[in-house]
Amino acid sequence: MLMSGDWEVRGLFGNEYAMENAVDELKKLDPVPEFKVLDRRNLSVVMSKRDTKTKQLVKNIITIAHGFVESDAPLGRYDTEKAEIKRKKLKEYEVKRKKASQAAN
Question: What is the pTM of this model?
Answer without folding.
Answer: 0.74
